[in-house]
Amino acid sequence: MNAILEMRGITKTFPGVKALDNVNITVKAGEIHALVGENGAGKSTLMKVLSGVYPYGSYSGQIIYEGQERRFKGIADSEELGIIIIHQELALVPLLSIAENIFLGNEQAKYGIIDWSAVFARTKELLKMVGLDESPDTLVTNIGVGKQQLVEIAKALSKKVRLLILDEPTASLNEKDSDALLNLLLRFKAQGISSILISHKLNEISKVADAITVLRDGSTVETLDCRTEEVSEDRIIRGMVGRTMADRYPKRESRIGETIFQVENWSAYHPLHANVQVVRNVNLHIRRGEIVGIAGLMGAGRTEFAMSLFGRSYGQNISGRVRLHGREIDVSTVGKAVGNGIAYATEDRKTYGLVLEEDIRKNITLANLQGVAKNLVIDDIRELAVANDYRAKMRIRSFNVFQEAVNLSGGNQQKVVLSKWLFSNPEILILDEPTRGIDVGAKYEIYTIINGLADAGKGVLMISSEMPELLGMCDRIYVMNEGALVAEFHAAEASQEKIMHAIVKSGRR
Amino acid sequence: MDTRTAEELHVPQQTSWLEFVKAHFRDYGMLLSLLAIMMFFQVMTNGTLLRPLNLTNLVLQNSYIVIMALGMLLVIVAGHIDLSVGSIVGFVGGLAAMMMVRWGFDPVTTTIACLVVGGLIGAAQGYWVAYFKVPSFIVTLAGMLVFKGLTLALLGGMSVGPFPVVFQRLSSGFIPDVLGGEGFNYTALFLGTASVAALIYFSVRSRASQIKHNVETAPLGLFALKNALLAVLVIAFCYQMATYRGLPNVLVIMAILIALYAFVTNRTTIGRRIYALGGNEKAAKLSGIKTERLTFLTFVNMGVLAGLAGLIFAARLNTATPKAGLGFELDVIAAVFIGGASATGGVGKVTGAVIGAFVMGVMNNGMSILGIGIDYQQVIKGLVLLAAVSLDVYNRKK
Q: Would you kindly state where each structural domain of chain A is located, as residue ranges?
């Protein structure tokens, strides 16, 4: 069988981070090729190189597609040759109809005037192909996520697709919709359309994939051929996680005290869909000086849990109790949660963590302005002293504390966020993806800071999608899937395989 | 051993004049443009612009715009807009007229009641914006229509006046000359000098503390020049005023309010929180700031200031007309944006807004003296607004 696509020696660097390092992948014509790897392994980056989001010249290596080397300058170039990517976050316009969405940017028009009857006829054809029984003029917002995914695929088909790339297509689908989607891929395969399937759901992969390429830390680990041998989930997991964990995490002697923080029967529902339960009956506790991790895949509900806990910043119909030192505390607003000694450093520091246009100093004192003010009047000098103090302690690399947060690197921005929360003097810190988008050196510094917090007797709850990080840092790890805690491991007994198994097993229920 | 580099530790920066001016161009640029515009009209009007009588007029004509610009600055920094202020000016002016002229209330009760009504109007609009999340553009557009209509209804379509003399003094009165000069108001000069002394005292003190704590400061020469220039300007201004009738009451009200709002925005927690709210509402909320209440309060504050402006404007005309306040919102909003505020919120200064208001005011006044018709005045003002904001956007991109 001929290869439809060959990517050779792809290397892509971002300032300070090597996202892809000499990656090779070969997709044969008419096969379903799965691409697996942990979060941050480089799967999405690789697909962005392929589709031209990162244009030729911004990476090194070769892309050979249908026998020729291709140098895509943008998405339009790759789409023209039939490479269509469907992203995890759907790119549909909710208030336009199915037909309008399918032909968005590719309108069936003559002299700029849309031929609606042609559009509707074509749309009906396409919807039939993907097995979606909806009228073309139904608004996208009125159909479920599963059907929206099918609309995306219909849109891809409208562009004469030859290589279809699906990034986590079933992440937000229920089992029935997932099955329908996978069957659709098998039908496409019969018609000679190749696909690349990025997924965390290994059971789905074993069901449909002809070949599996495993990425880890930006490099190709191996390619498994499912046609010649049966590939077990265990085998895939081993490929995904098999890495050494040498000195990437600073050493720490845990000195764990009594339980200081308890969450009991915590539940929350989706902010817009009142019947969708996002956090299911979570019970957990944290002891003094303990670093507790929550592992899980993206979309497992970890951030939603943390934010619903922190001043009901997410969801509705929230129920459950929170205890600090055994006493029930009120966390119904952010102000009360902070006042009761809880801090939450968000996973998305640019959107939720920092006021980017303001300087380091103002960001650090934002959550505890009273700490530098006397009767509403800010004491400039005290504020400056506080800011300079944290800048030195946290080693925030900047010209001075008057530098705007927007001009700092990711690691330094994260240090500013941590400084802000430390200055609010919490007992419990919830750190959501504290090292996301941060290079290796800065990660080590962040780890050191987190260890320092635990040594100071605080309780740390660390949410991370990077399992090695949790294994390297935590005393205890909870595993979350579909909004519920599905397993708990002590550091000594935890391993990536066990965590993966816990997730995969609970997902099959 | 301390392994931190000099850059990591705090080493004060040696700055040259040129570098400092470059770095703070936006702060100084505004003031320089205002001075340039004033010079231009001073020359073009053969010196009429800065004559004592005209200077007094300039202050009286612009006081209500400046006062509303203070409130509008907070609203815009918080990421919103208020289109209803012109209508509130008209409505509150009309209410004051009815209370004093028709219903027989005394000026003090009237003034207090009108400020409260202004606040209530602001609260009513702020409620929809803050807690119901209706876009402020729409809420205040509705408010603009509602209060324009209510003004007409309240006044029955007629002009109502005149007002008691005490009330007129709010706008046309002057600080009495207790020092008793003849033909020259020593009190005005004294107050001017005293405020200059206070300004210099505070800036020297803040500079000393900055130096003590290794904060980057302006070079000494520039610092001295800036203060000297400011002192000369204020004293020259007060001297000119003294040769006429002294300092208008409204100037003093305005000066106190400017100082108060400059202090609130720069030095208080509430000011800081408004900037954070406008800069990144989500982050502010997750830092424990009560963003809804803060938004609500900025609108209440805007309402009170619009009410005050309404009183001053009515007192100045000595009559309330259904057309009072028409289009003021545009001048106020333009002043804030000319003063460097960002339309997306989070950025803007009180001094900028005040300078912006005076840029508009001087142009209005200067062009009127030159006999340029109201038609082309508007064209020129519109172009100046566009130019000022484009320049600002361009500077920020660099």
A: 3-241, 259-341+426-507, 358-425
